[in-house]
Amino acid sequence: MSADNIREVVKQKYGQAALRVQSGGSSCCGGSPAVGGGCDPITSNLYSTQQSGEVPDQAMQASLGCGNPTALAQLNPGETVLDLGSGGGIDVLLSAWRVGPTGKAYGLDMTDEMLALARENQRKAGVTNVEFMKGEIENIPLPDNSVDVIISNCVINLSSDKDRVLREAYRVLKPGGRLAVSDVVVTGEIPAEVRKNVELWIGCIAGALRDSDYTAKLAGAGF
């Protein structure tokens, strides 16, 4: 399975998840399984009641993450935050509230349907210090040294070129910048047939690295 094929299937499945949410359903993770859903929730109750009250319902329903990077990242007023694979925008909107009107929160996603949903959620939330950009996390459309904090929620595993993703993240971070990622790692071997299964890749399973390999890739990128 080529990188381009994986990317296209991921775009299709996440686009379908966004359309389900827009039609009043749920995505498959981070909430109730969607009708005829393509995967089961990885985890639930990732966000506090206070956080869920700060974003539109559709932003919560579109959450496909495996964690809560906004709980890991120390965000300060005036900082610039970038979310790699921003989906329906929940982590971008939560970050925008924390960095305040003098800060900025960017969301980067390659799926048109998710971007449309995220921008609608931004409009509903009344948040102005947010910009959602179309692009791939392997090619971040921001200049060098332009971001204080990078967050990501179970998206780096979807890339077949994680080294490039991490190098790009390091490139756009300012000196002393921070990286806060929720992702899936493994402590044993994943069978080859699982790694070849695109549906499992989308669920952050087939693309998961060993924890030690993930650490090595971070160090190789400069972190």
Main attributes?
single chain, alpha/beta, two-stranded parallel sheet, 7 strands, globular
Protein described:
There is one protein chain. The chain is α/β, with parallel strands linked by helices and 223 residues long. It has a single domain (3-221), classed as Vaccinia Virus protein VP39 (Rossmann fold, 3-Layer(aba) Sandwich). 39% of the residues lie in helices and 17% in strands. It has helices at 3-22, 49-52, 57-61, 69-72, 90-99, 112-125, 162-172, 192-195, 198-202, 211-221; strands spanning 80-84, 104-109, 130-134, 147-153, 173-182, 185-186, 209-210. The longest helix is centred in the N-terminal third of the chain and has 20 residues, at 3-22. It is globular. The model is unreliable at 25-43 (pLDDT under 50).
Please tell me how large the radius of gyration is: 16 Å
CATH class, named: Alpha Beta
Whole-number average pLDDT? 78
In the CATH hierarchy, what is the superfamily?
Vaccinia Virus protein VP39
Can you tell me the CATH topology? Rossmann fold
Main beta-sheet strand count, sense and barrel state: 5 strands, parallel
Shape: globular
* Strands side by side in the biggest sheet: 3-2-1-4-5
Stretches with pLDDT under 50, minimum 5 residues: 25-43
Strand content: 15-25%
* Straight-line N-to-C gap: 30 Å
* Topology pattern, helix = H, strand = E: HHHHEHEHEEHEEHHEH
Query: What share of the residues lie within helices?
Result: 25-40%
